[in-house]
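Blinded run. Sample ID left blank on purpose so nobody reads anything into the name before looking at the predicted structure. Input follows.
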Amino acid sequence: MRKKLEGNGLWESSRMMLPEHKERILEVNHELVRKEQPILDPYKWEEINERLSDAYRNGEAVRLVLWDPFENRSITGMITKLDVLAYRILIAGQWVKLSGILEVEFA
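Blinded prediction complete.
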């Protein structure tokens, strides 16, 4: 009996984890890797705007690097529409907000 009461013995023999607890632990760990959106300087915004307008005018394909809180993603295609009032573009059948664009490269 003495061995069970030493250290953490009593709890070691009755340890268990419910599925709900495991899910919550995974959620918390996932939230720890969340990134803040970087603030781009005005020169970077000017460069992005110039490349987007050139690609739209010339009908060239571009590769956009988009901000995501967990992992940046990219999308490649031609810009088919510009919505200046809503600050978004239509590329590869998907609307993308201009504020989420980190980089524009010609494909």
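Unblinding after everyone has recorded impressions. Residues 42-58 form the longest helix (17 residues).
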